[in-house]
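Action item from last week, closing it out:
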Amino acid sequence: MKQRSALVNWQQITVSPDNTHFLFEGKPIFDKQFIEVLKFHAPGLAPVKDETGAYHIDSNGNPLYSERYTRTFGFYCNRATVVERQKWFHINEKGERTYPQNYAWAGNFQENICTVRDFDGNYFHIDLQGDRIYSENYLYAGDYKDGIACVKLSTGLCKHLNTNGKFINDKEFLDLGVFHKNFATAKDKDGWFHIDKDGESVYLERYLAVEPFYNGFALVTQFDDSKVIINEQGKIAHKI
């Protein structure tokens, strides 16, 4: 492969179909095959893995740092998750660790907050400095979206949490999704449905499965496996 110009816009660099190299205008760049590559993220850095290990490269194909890891992931909120054997943590755009703690697993930062799992199996959220944003532990904690995340309590039930670590309402559910355009998917003993931010069901019906509302309508699966489209009031608007 031939090296392309150094004046390449990283946003136009794509990943090859076999995930082993990068393409610019459909042609290979960087003159290198990797074991695995992932796409570029702002500010123009990509995770790669070769025979020396996993690391990040810049938009010219140069390694960002000399360290090598077991696995690396993309940058989100100026932080990237890396794995050093069984230890997970985050680095910044200079390749420096951003906190001293190690985790059994770490997600990607979303809205400057990240979900992690410690070596005792507890889930919680940390900020960009690696500090916990609350003291509670959960069986599971999901990503924040628009300032709200789903967590699973020690009882096995689920609730919505704000960025201060406080529950947004007093409702508990068997399962929960994130809010999308003011509604979230939820499950109780009778099935799946949609709720508002007060945790109230927006209609009486229950379903085998529901999708988030998409421009005012949602695809749901009834208990006979048939699918219908409902509106935000729960009325059937179309049968599939």
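Closing note: Confidence is low (pLDDT under 50) at residues 1-5.
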